[in-house]
Amino acid sequence: MIINITIKLLNLYSLIIFLRAIFSWAGTSNLHGHIYLFLCKITDPILDRFRFVSLKLNLPIDLSPIIVIFLIDFIKKILIKTYV
Predict the structure, then answer these.
(1) Residues with Cβ < 8 Å from 53, sequence gap 6 or more?
(2) pLDDT digits (tens, 9 = 90+) for 24-66
(3) Long-range contacts of 78-81 (CB under 8 A, 24+ apart)
(4) Contacts for 23 with CB less than 8 Å, ≥ 6 apart
(5) Listed residue (71, 81, 84) closest to 14, CA to CA
């Protein structure tokens, strides 16, 4: 039961990170600006920990959303194999 809830929360967080990435590529209107700021507030604490990859490689794009989504997927797979 707790594992299922954890997996659903991880899925939700992956979706939020994906939405943040999409919003960062699109222009922001007032409504979208507020949504984007909310998404940033939720995701930045985790994404900031992985932004060094793009900085170290001197890349023009931020790879942290991709890295975090892969990490979340890895954690979900471990949870499923261990507890299901």
Answers:
(1) 63, 64, 67
(2) 887 666 667 788 889 999 999 999 999 998 888 898 989 999 9
(3) 79/3, 79/6, 79/7, 80/3, 80/7
(4) 32, 35, 36, 39
(5) 71
